Amino acid sequence: MVSPQDDELKVFHINLPATTEDLARLELGSAVYLTGLVYTAREGIYKKVLDEGLEAPVELRGLSNVNFHCSPAAAPNEDGGYNVGAVTATASFRFSKWIPKWMEKTGCRIFIGKGGMPADDYKRVLAPGGAIYLTTVGYGTGALLGRGIKRVQDVFWLDELGIAQAMWMFDVENFGPFIVESDLEGNSLFAQHAEVINAGIDKLYAGLKPPALHRYGETDDRKNEVM
Amino acid sequence: MTISIDRVEEAAFEIMKRAAIEIPKDYKQGIQALQKTETGKLPRFVIHAMQDNWEAADQDRRPMCADTGLPRYYVKVGNNASVQRGFVAVERALRKATADATLAVPLRPNRVHPLWRTDNNNNVGINAPEIEWSFEPDADWVDITTVHKGGLFGTDYRMLFPGDGIDGIKRFVLDTLIAFGKRGLACQPAIVGIGLGGSKDTCMQLGKQAACLRVVGDRNPDPKIAELERELMTLGNSIGMGAMGFVGSSMVVDCHIEVGHTHTGGMPISLHTFCLSSRRATARIHPDGNIEYRTDPQWFTPYLRRETVEW
Prior knowledge:
The complex is a heterodimer of chains A (227) and B (311). By secondary structure, chain A is of the alpha/beta class.
């Protein structure tokens, strides 16, 4: 039996925009809280800016270097602003192909999302560009993250892309917790844990007879990831 | 006596709100029990943070998760119930409550056209929200349950054959939990629902209902199936994986199996995971206008699981 109290992680607070020194201090598996300006961008924004070559609605370089892969639960309020109830991340691996160009264009240094990127992206793209990945916790600390948003500073392309895909600019305070998934050397917490878990997989299947039907298009290497 | 349509709409709106904000007690207690035995520090941190999140959601009256999933309804109609303006009016009231709750809670407008990706910004559209109907003898009430469940990862289907037996079921369960448990794509620890048998679509439907419409601690009335539920739960928790796919021991809060008589040559199986934001709420609307709210949908009644012609 373990004590349920024993769940404290090392905690880091970062004021945004993040500097190289801020990021260099972070350790895999530690908790992070952010204060400053964070924006959302996912496939809708990446397609417009990177595939269609449209001018980004705001110059991000110098303004914010934190890209949150998320869609808020937001609705217009009577003051002409927005109520943000909850925010939860969406799975980042789907955006892998746009990340190199996005970093180049905006100088992004922190990506926040669900589940991390393919481990190879950290070594190949994020770390060489001085960027790290923070994963949300759970997933779905939507209410805690909603509390951390102090104000919607702006929202762009709301009509064109809808609430889920628009670019939201959030003023945040003690926004978190997030867990450090990748560091400036390109190491991955998920990859390290998967390695330990993978070592035990074969024995789970020991003694189970093979299936009657063999299927095309699927892997039977269970050490692979589905993403 | 006829049930007023306004009460139906009011109840549907209220359960949308409750489901989004309040974690059901049975799930919360299940997670707290797992927390005591979880072997990994990171999964323990995650479970702790999720409990803080439920508390924050309740205090602030904001959704616990921004991913509204695909909000939808399950309606159980008493055989003696009648509703003002009929069941077309009920379907309209459920759609209206969804649109209103999307703005009022607020819920994220998740529903888009599958090809054009157009969003009505109210979680209503073609075949959305889904409304599934069932009936109950000797009752004059209407039960409405809403479920908000994410839907991208954690679900799978496979046609097994009788010769695959329990081994085939175990393989499928391990495959699915390992595949979607890594990095926590399934948002575990989850209530795992398994649909076994039926036609392919019934199989998917039963698994989804098993995950979303039965509470933690509930067992299938067939003692052998109940035993299999316990066995698969233990199997899932022996993978060595906890919350977010970190090394740990809590993958499954509970396992529920629902069966349907199936093709003599096959044994179709589906698996669904109801996540760390397991959102469900039920309202019973009585003809006198009284509404009772609860978190146990009581969907799988003896009548629903009947095997014979007569009841």
